[in-house]
Task: structure prediction
Amino acid sequence: MVGVGKVNRECLCGSIDFDRVKVERPDDAPYVTAFIECRRCRVMYHSPVVPDAPRPPPYTGPLILGRKKIEPAPTDEALMEAVRRANKSKPRGYR
Result:
């Protein structure tokens, strides 16, 4: 038997543990069938092998092209200088 483990189905006996059924061909080569067998009561069910979903492609970066590079945050001195320049450009009553 090839182990399957817990499956999204329940056997008539209430078990959810199953094994994949494996048989030998006349030339002694093993063959894994599309059947599963309950580990507790040995009842067989047809359960074709479902292939795994394809993996998503690897992440290659942002999808938006032409985006500008983000500048680092200004230092405290540069920020205070920008505030002084902005205040100088205001009319006298609005400072």
Notes: The chain has a mean pLDDT of 78. The CA atoms of residues 59 and 65 lie 15 Å apart. The first strand starts at residue 2 and ends at 6.
